[in-house]
Design brief:
This protein is mostly helical. The protein has two domains: 16-71, Homeodomain-like (Arc Repressor Mutant, subunit A, Orthogonal Bundle); 76-203, Tetracycline Repressor, domain 2. The protein has helices at residues 18-36, 39-46, 50-57, 60-75, 77-82, 88-103, 113-118, 126-152, 162-181, 186-198. Helix 1 packs across helix 4 (60-75) and helix 6 (88-103) runs antiparallel to helix 10. The protein is elongated.
Length: 203
Amino acid sequence: MEAAVSPAPRGRPREFCPDAALAKALGVFWTRGYEGASMAELTEAMGITKPSLYAAFGNKEQLFHKALDLYESEKLAYTREALERATAREVAEHYLRGAVDAVCGAHGPRGCLGVVAATACGAEAEGIREHVVARRRSSHAALVERFVRARDAGDLPGHVDPEGLTQFLYALLQGMAVQAAGGASRAELERVADTGLMLWPAA
């Protein structure tokens, strides 16, 4: 008598953890940049096949957007926290100290994923660069608005240009990210942050 054959389960269970796979993809993009990250490198790091990647995350550009979401939620939380600080100088200090921690962190490559993506120049990466710039524009506007309120409250001198002050802070942040990617030490980057704060306009 033949043994009864159990019906095959419908559908194959997903054989990987999407969150873990996305974290691996983030590491590749962060290290290699959008243009430099090949599909072969991504699938190898994520431990999945190309069909599985497409099914779970979409194409390479969609995967990068999801990785950027993860990067912003995990690595850039300090930028949202900074806006809640009591004074403009405290906002700037939280930004600068948070940036040092982010670009020198033990978990993840050195440098800033946003800077890597925004400086990509190939035709393939043009849409990515525009997307990153659009995200930055939103956070930039929030920071300008915060400094406008600080000036109106007397926390910044009346002659200070909030837009220019924001550009100054971003120049420091981006410069530190580039230096970190080039091997600058935490002490060297903290010196940059300290100098930037010394130049901050007093109320």
